[in-house]
């Protein structure tokens, strides 16, 4: 009787684990699909997490990759498309978002890298200037599309220019995955280590 119950219990645990992986991931009420299509490829949700600042929830983030990776080096070497999705949890001005972006870059790339990307950084700054700000519920995608470049989309609409250098996209990812990430708890979550 006990062994039969244990087998039943083990089967239920396995079934629940399977159901959890088959459904969308959720964090603070924000759902992230387990897969998305980008540039004709299916990307898998690598990890999700919450960006907080002084205990205030700023945005939920999800990182999508062609295959799951759990080290920064492996993520940076991926040749296929990649997507970082931010879902805003509060309103933030375009100036504040742009400033946070620049702080994140400055903290994670050296002067030589920064001088190489000065044009792309300037274009990103111009992009932040074209939006009034980000509102609660807004969805921002920061995509790498091979053969095209770094592309941003806000609520389904392309914003800014497409920037062709993959090294620039990697520099942008370092805001969240670099040695001094924007949020030290979000980095391992995006790498699938805290899910």
Automatic annotation (TrEMBL):
<protein>
    <submittedName>
        <fullName>Lipoprotein transmembrane</fullName>
    </submittedName>
</protein>
<dbReference type="InterPro" id="IPR016087">
    <property type="entry name" value="Chalcone_isomerase"/>
</dbReference>
<keyword id="KW-0812">Transmembrane</keyword>
<feature type="domain" description="Chalcone isomerase">
    <location>
        <begin position="24"/>
        <end position="192"/>
    </location>
</feature>
<feature type="signal peptide">
    <location>
        <begin position="1"/>
        <end position="24"/>
    </location>
</feature>
<keyword id="KW-0472">Membrane</keyword>
<dbReference type="GO" id="GO:0016872">
    <property type="term" value="F:intramolecular lyase activity"/>
</dbReference>
<keyword id="KW-0449">Lipoprotein</keyword>
<dbReference type="InterPro" id="IPR016088">
    <property type="entry name" value="Chalcone_isomerase_3-sand"/>
</dbReference>
<dbReference type="InterPro" id="IPR036298">
    <property type="entry name" value="Chalcone_isomerase_sf"/>
</dbReference>
<keyword id="KW-0732">Signal</keyword>
<dbReference type="Pfam" id="PF16036">
    <property type="entry name" value="Chalcone_3"/>
</dbReference>
């Amino acid at each position: 009787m006990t062994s039969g119950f244990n087998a039943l219990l083990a089967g239920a645990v396995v079934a629940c684990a399977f159901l959890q992986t088959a459904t969308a991931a959720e964090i603070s009420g924000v759902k992230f699909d387990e897969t998305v299509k980008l540039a004709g490829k299916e990307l898998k949700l690598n990890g999700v997490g919450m960006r907080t600042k002084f205990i205030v929830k700023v945005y939920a983030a999800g990182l999508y990759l062609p295959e799951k990776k759990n080290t920064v080096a492996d993520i940076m070497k991926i040749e296929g498309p990649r997507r970082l999705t931010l879902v805003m949890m509060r309103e933030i001005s375009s100036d504040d978002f742009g400033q946070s972006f620049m702080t994140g870059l400055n903290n994670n790339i050296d002067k030589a890298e920064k001088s190489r990307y000065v044009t792309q950084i300037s274009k990103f700054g111009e992009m932040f200037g074209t939006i009034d700000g980000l509102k609660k519920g807004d969805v921002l995608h920061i995509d790498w599309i091979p053969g095209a470049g770094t592309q941003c989309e806000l609520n389904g609409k392309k914003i800014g220019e497409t920037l062709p250098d993959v090294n620039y996209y990697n520099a942008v990812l370092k805001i969240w995955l670099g040695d001094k990430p924007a949020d030290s708890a979000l980095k391992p979550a995006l790498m699938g280590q805290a899910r």
